[in-house]
Amino acid sequence: MQTTRPLALITGASSGIGATFARQLAVRGYDLVLVARRRDRLEQEARAIQDGHPVQVEILSADLTRDADLRAVEERIAAAPNLEFLVNNAGFGIAGRFFSLPLDGQDQMHRLHVLAPMRLMHAALQGMVARKRGSIINVSSVSGFGQNPGSVSYSATKTWMSSFTEGIYMELQSIGSPVRVQALCPGFTLSEFHDTMSFDRTPIPAWMWMSADEVVDASLRALDRGQLFVIPGWRYRLLVFVMRALPRPLYHWLSIKYARGTGRDKG
Prior knowledge:
By secondary structure, the protein is α/β, with parallel strands linked by helices. The protein has helices spanning 16-27, 39-52, 67-78, 103-131, 152-174, 193-196, 212-224, 234-245, 248-262; strands at residues 7-11, 31-36, 57-61, 83-88, 135-139, 180-184, 189-190, 210-211, 229-230.
């Protein structure tokens, strides 16, 4: 893709938060590379964006849990001299006890939430640091600030993502690099994410749900301010404050009691 416009690559771009990032970055004048497994959905998103914005949109169908597909995305990043934005958004959840679930799903989650963003960031940062411009947003989660029975791997991988992003932020600051990184930590967001894991939304109060547009708006505004950790929504900022303030034994007791009461630890 030969262009003078800056380029943004977004994983998990076929729906939800990823698709919303694509639309909002198109408004900001970025050409796009949309990455996801579902080519038909990528083509649909690309057409919708190009119908409304004078930008180029490339689609790259890839399963980032597979080495060959991940390598292809790394190579696309490394070959783009105008890459100025990377959004690591691809992810999924599995409900159930870790030891009761098939191992393959757990393995894929760790590959997608840990290995894929690590490798894509490595590919992107080499060029961004040398060019002294660029932004990376890693979509983590409020779940990364604690643990929850029934979603142990999800919480653990999101904890890693937030911690890794913080470490990269510190390295960039230590060399005076203007490249920006952010760990975006949303709570319950209305998207296909929960549908794919057959998540029952009814026990969650309506006021706890946020739209993908609200989440992405908060992320991009905070990125403009150079904010590292972004928790969209006052209720989730309050929740994280309480989670951090509680003594760990009390936090454990409350989490276990909640899991038993809702059945979210079953599998």
